[in-house]
Amino acid sequence: MPISKGKHLPQVPFFSQAADMQTYLQQPATTKCSNGEGLLLTLSSSAWRIAFRPYTNSHSRTSLFVIGVEGTIGINYGTVADNLPPPVQVARFLLESTFISRVRLFDANPEILKAFARTGIAVTVNVPNDLIPHLLKLSFARQWVEYNVLPHVPATNIVRILVGNEVISTANKLLIGSLVPAMETLHAAIVERSLDRLIQISTPHSLGILASSSPPSTGKFRPGYDIHILKPLLDFLRATNSPFMINPYPFFGSSENTLDYALFRPNPGVFDENTRLTYTNMLDAQLDAVYSALKLLDFEDIEIVIAETGWPSKGDPGQAGVDAESAAEYNRKLMQHVMSGVGTPLMPHRTFETYIFALFNEDLKPGPACERNFGLFKPNMTPVYDIGILRPTVANAANAAVPVTDHGHTNSRTYLLILVYVCLMCL
């Protein structure tokens, strides 16, 4: 059974030989420095206006965590909308009404960072893709840290910086070739401020980085990217004890015939003849394909983090499995699975730090209707459906209005896990 490559269709060139990739990256790109605040970059027939700024709003996405009994659950907090509550209100809601203890931002918006000050919530910030080439200069990396990190620590507990998002899938050779050097330079800047033991640096990938994924044991990275980009990246992640982050979406790889497999329901499974292992859900197959690719490069020890995954509650007419009940079922079973310690067929007895997409429905997102309906909450912060992340008093008030069952049966294991976590926090 084919495995979904991720939320976005891969737009990366395919190279049959590693040398082809090296030649591609070495092709010259011209740059022009403007007299204003920004830098105009010209590459082939494309041009970008890249202005220095503390943060970007255009594709801002934020994510937060629930700390589980044996693992970490996160949720992407998207802001591509015109009806969302102010950050101070969101921070208060997460702190007082949910079990969330970490927030992941896909920018370094100072208003959001200020809102989470003195909350104790751990925060991840992001360097947008268009600023990656600038980070090749240590002076710019220092300035970025000075503007986006130093004003907020220690009041805001910043724990991770992500450099770009799905950079390899952009097919932009300037961004791709700059990614690892930019991460290294940014790391040097935080070392100078003695923050390297507190802040990790990583970057998330779509599953389009895989040349093969089915069966999972054949997973491998795309030729050229594996040696020239991903191996140096993995060397950096290992040296800095940072995770390899991926964005798997079983929803985008499912069909009416494979819904049970995608939604963790009972199904015949998919047999991998190479390992003699059977896969009973699509997410495990995706994770093990990535693990196989890492192992092929001798990096199977690197932690894998699920940076994005989710299921929409509404879509276009005729879309199979696009409803609130299916979304609630996927996200509840996802939490149970990644926190259970069962692991995957190739990675048994492991838990996975996982970010559910998304906190809010986002009315300004382009594309099909499902893209605007991944949220767990409406803009007024009432739940679209319940997956067990609300504190009991809040959940009791909401349960009558949102779906809380799996085919008619209350799912109590999620609540039990959260109850145990609350008890541990009180010790």
Structural features, described:
- It is a single chain.
- This protein is an alpha/beta fold.
- The protein has one domain (about 20-425): Glycosidases (TIM Barrel), CATH 3.20.20.
- Helix content is about 30%, strand content about 20%.
- It has helices at about 20-25, 85-95, 110-115, 140-150, 175-190, 225-240, 250-255, 260, 280-295, 325-340, 390-400, 415-425, and strands at about 30-35, 40-45, 45-50, 60-65, 70-80, 100-105, 120-125, 155-165, 200, 205, 210, 220, 245, 270, 275-280, 305-310, 355, 405, 410.
- The chain has a ten-stranded mixed β-sheet. A three-stranded antiparallel β-sheet has the order 1-2-3, with no helix packed on it.
- The radius of gyration is 21 Å and the shape is globular.
- The N and C termini lie far apart (about 45 Å).
- It is found in: Cell membrane.
- Its EC number is 3.2.1.39.
Q: Spans of 5+ residues with little confidence (pLDDT < 50)?
A: 1-6, 28-71, 404-415
User: What is the CATH class designation?
Assistant: Alpha Beta
Q: Compute the gyration radius: what is it?
A: 21 Å
How many helical elements?
Answer: 12
CATH architecture: Alpha-Beta Barrel
CATH fold name: TIM Barrel
Order of adjacent strands in the largest pleated sheet: 9-8-7-6-4-5-17-16-13-10
N- to C-terminal distance = 46 Å
The global form is globular
The tally of beta strands, per DSSP, is 19
Largest sheet: 10 strands, mixed
- Which class of secondary structure composition applies to the elements? alpha/beta
Helix content: 25-40%
Number of domains: 1
**At the fourth CATH level, what is the homologous superfamily?**
Glycosidases
Strand content: 15-25%
What would the average pLDDT be, to the nearest integer? 82
